[in-house]
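Session log. Operator J.P. requested a structure for one protein chain; no other inputs attached. Running the standard single-chain path with token output.
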Amino acid sequence: MKPDLSSQPILLVEDNPVDLDLTLRAFAKRKLTNPLHVARDGAEALSWIPHWESGEPWPALILLDLKLPKVDGLEVLRQLKAHPTLRAIPVVVLTTSSEDVDMQKAYLLGANSYIVKPVDFDKFIEVAAQVELYWRVLNKSFRSSADGEKSP
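Structure written below.
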């Protein structure tokens, strides 16, 4: 049976207030039911790791900007994907950077997807719909939504 990912949180790592608002409005318009946690810099994103290690539910998905204060998104990605168990959390880079070097580094560090943020709200709604469709419906998860552990 497929785990119910709608009860698992989504971690949005975004420092730009305009992009944060755009993302929140896009998910509200899509009626996304997942709880949404926001980290406004890379250090705040990494501060979730001890909570997940101590048993708090893992996010169904992490949406990660690259250009962050304190700790940049590539370093956050590196640390998440180096973790022996948390590396299974899907990480979608959602950034304004369309630089090939950023995309290459992100994939080499283990990003599951790389999306360049559209500026137009309607296009952003389309992106939010595609992210939701793929990660909540089409993608197969091997983790239990209840405890974050691997299912047999």
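Operator note: The radius of gyration is 14 Å.
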